[in-house]
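User: Hey, quick favor. My workstation is busy. Could you predict this chain's structure for me?
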Amino acid sequence: MSIEIAENEITFEWEERDDSTPYLIHMIAGSFAGISEHCSMLPIDTIKTHMQVKKSNPGFINTLRSLQSNIGFLGLWKGASIQALGCVPAHAAYFSIYEHAKSIMNLNDGNQHFILFGLTGALATCIHDIIITPFDVLKQRQQLTRQKINFILKNMIKQEGLFSLFRSVPVTMMINLPSAATIVCVNESLKIMYKPQNGHSFWSYLACASFAGSAAACVTIPLDVIKTKLQTQSIQKNLVSMRSKDEVKQIKLEVVDKKSQLISSFARNYQSSQDMAQSSGIKYRNILQTIQSIYLEEGLRGFVKGVTPRMLQQAPSAAISWTVYEMIKNSLINRNNRE
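Assistant: No problem, here it is.
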């Protein structure tokens, strides 16, 4: 790989990955990318989390104002330490698996492989999600409270069991598989379509990844709402008022009047699941029951809560992560080649 200096900007010529490149390089670059992404975008993520757990829809600006008055500016970074702890191994695994998959599939030839690019992203995110989900659960609960991580973890295991740390893994993968596939295939395809004469630079990496992140955010917002409900349920009752049984019955009557008998059955199943949840202390038990709860309590709008902060988070998140990764990776490869 050669490096050229043009107009005071570092650019990198298109390269086929050398299989002799140590995977430690990808792991180091991926770790820095993960920390840069998650820590810089944590305030937006905090706002999104608060918006998604409330049954009302206060909006992005009102939620931000409320948080600033209640927890202050620095409070928007609550959960940063546990997030950083999880994203280092998760992103190291993600980018090294991604590079290995590209090498096995012979995707480093500079040609378009739209579907296969997406497949490499999906494969890499499977391991990433298993590693990071428990840390993400603890992070979101710390975002919503002033409690320490060890206290949150102890109470979670006591009240919900150890499984509560992994309850949202299925929905997390449902979100991140299409999200990662979209980001990787769009990002890689744009890098091939838009290839500057002197090679890619910081700004071209940034633009490609930012566009890819925006596309992924639009696809996955409903699943992100479901994931947040599953991950934060035991503390939501302290943040928002729950509907009474009379209100739930009224919802059922309105559904029967406006919808078909199928929706009426849907509501009865919801009430039954709510009764079970109240007796066990767990409101959201699985993905399907969570979808039912959101629909009957909040309507279709409940599935797009937090779309604004998610867009504001996802586009720069992808841009930061992939740009940092590419720049550090190329710098380390160049240094390794010189040695």
